[in-house]
Amino acid sequence: MVITICICGSFKFYKEMEQAAGILRKKGFTVIVPQPSHIRHGHKPEELKSKKYDKKTLTRWEGEGAFTHLENIRRSDVVYIFNKGSYLGPAVTVEIGFSLALKKPIYARAAVEDITVTNFIKQIVNPEGLGELLKI
Question: Per the confidence metrics, is the pTM higher than 0.90?
Answer without folding.
Answer: no
